[in-house]
Amino acid sequence: MNKTFSVTVDFDQLVEDHDRNGNIGYLYLRECYKRLEVTAFLKKYQLNAELFAFFVYTDVIDDLQNLQEIYDYRRHYLHGPQFTTDDLGELEYGFIEHRKEYLMYLQKRMIVLYPKSKDNIIKVFKEYRRASDLLPLLEITKRCVITVLYEDINKGSYYFNNAQLRTTLRDMSVININDQYYQAGYENSYVLKALEDTYHLGLNKRYYTIEEMHAKLKR
């Protein structure tokens, strides 16, 4: 049964830009990221798991060229994490210190997920063994997330490229209407249908109650 609710509209209200509006396309990436179990590794070494995940999602959607760009994107996400230059520095230092362990951990996770591709996975990871900063580690994590996503999508016989994926995810913004409900600022598309048919997150709706959206963010 469809839910209905009444709202009060102020026709003189101006458009606002605040942290109650933002992108939700990253929620599909979160489903893939969970499968890599990266958070378990980060917590083991007391690294900022929430911040690193945010970096990965942003790199997939916006293709970061340097870590400083992250400051330009942090307000784009609905309820995105707040962080300072100190947080970024601590994350960079921690990853550099444990980069070899991280690469080995991530490689093993990919082999567990896709044992038939073991030789190719090992070959790809060899390219990152000399990584000396966070950006290459972020890149290989991004590649793994995208691989998981495409493997899932292809099971349903859907096919699209990285540019189409980025455009769809980047456009998936919702707008908070007077703190009464969220309205989607994007349209349905082939890629969105493929994502929704695969992950069933219910992100193809026009309207969301505040409670419903908060539940999706915490899922």
Q: What is this structure's SSE topology?
A:
Elements: E1 22-23, H1 26-36, H2 38-44, H3 49-62, H4 70-73, H5 85-97, H6 99-113, H7 118-126, H8 134-154, H9 162-171, E2 173-177, E3 181-184, H10 190-199, E4 207-209, H11 210-218
Antiparallel strand pairs: 1-2, 2-3, 3-4
Helix pairs in contact: 1-3, 1-8, 3-8, 6-7, 6-8
* Helix-and-strand structural type: alpha+beta
Principal-axes shape call: globular
Question: How much strand content do the residues show?
Answer: 5-15%
Q: State Rg.
A: 19 Å
Helix percent band:
55-70%
Q: What is the terminal separation in angstroms?
A: 23 Å
Question: With helices defined by DSSP (H or I, 4 residues minimum), what is the helix count?
Answer: 11
Counting DSSP E segments of at least 2 residues, the number of strands comes to 4
* Main sheet attributes: strand count, strand direction, barrel closure: 4 strands, antiparallel
Largest sheet: spatial strand order: 1-2-3-4
Helix-strand string: EHHHHHHHHHEEHEH
- Low-confidence residue ranges: none
Calculate the mean pLDDT score and round it: 87
